[in-house]
Specification:
This protein is an alpha+beta fold. Helix content is 20%, strand content 25%.
Length: 71
């Protein structure tokens, strides 16, 4: 699979609709936008070894499905 991550900051309040209509975002949308329930938990050692190595270990629950990612 391919993951594309876009990160933006805004100087004033903006709605989700405005974000999704923005040309830089809308060109990546290939299907109808759907809402999902998501909970993410990140893990590391007590000495933050993963962070020091620029890695992360995450367990995410998306619509009651558990997904573990090591990056």
């Amino acid at each position: 699979s391919r993951e594309i991550e876009l990160k933006y900051t805004f100087s004033q309040p903006i709605t989700f609709d405005e974000i999704f209509r923005a040309p830089r975002v809308s060109k990546f949308l290939c299907e109808e936008i759907r809402k999902i329930n998501m909970q993410s938990t990140y893990y590391d050692t007590q000495n933050f070894e993963l962070m020091r190595e620029h890695c992360s270990l995450r367990m995410r629950i998306e619509n009651q499905v558990k997904i573990v990612a090591f990056k």
